[in-house]
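Regression check, glycinamide ribonucleotide case 208:
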Amino acid sequence: MLKVVVCVSGGGTNLQAIIDSIAAGKITNTEIIGVISNNYGVKSIERAEKAGIPAFVLSPKDYSERSEFNKAFLDKVKELDPDLVVLAGFLVRIPEEFVKEYSNRIVNIHPSLIPSFCGVGYYGLKVHEKALERGVKITGATVHFVNEGMDEGPIIAQKPVAVEDGDTPEILQRRVMEQAEWVILPKAIDDIANGRIKVSGTKVISAF
Ligand code: GAR
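Current build output:
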């Protein structure tokens, strides 16, 4: 059984997609053992509690130094002792010591086709604003392992989504979530839980 901790910052629709996929048997051999939010009062916490999953809030605002928050965060994860950490709309930069400790055991969902529209400053709605500004006709989402770089780890899965005339960032964000994120993130977790994913250097090899 793959023990998973999901880290969130806001709405938690990706968290919900994981919860629903486990309930529907689309993700197997997997249990969410905890949800950690860096923000108080977000919908993600409600979603976790409704599903009977322990939820914790660790906010940088409660610490005078960023390094103290980073330590508290890593300590909390270690205490929960997961096999896999899923960043599902977690908009906090993951500290290097965390990445080292959980090498190839942290996955992130990003709302673009990496290497487009990713890296510093590209998160949440901003990603879709930039994609629309650039006028791309295809965007999408990516699930990848987290390494020391920003959105640079080995890519597990990607799914393209069409940009349509009249799209606003909000409309495009919703389409990318529905057609790509809520599909590829649960599938990636199921693939990991069932031993279908291997990392080889900077790449992921899927064994089916
Ligand atoms: C999602 O679109 C996710 O891909 C994005 O934040 C949103 C969170 O929504 N993540 C990033 O931009 C990471 N760089 P959710 O809370 O409803 O899952």
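Comparison notes: The chain has a mean pLDDT of 96. Helices lie at 13-23, 43-50, 66-80, 96-101, 125-134, 169-193. No diff flagged against the previous build.
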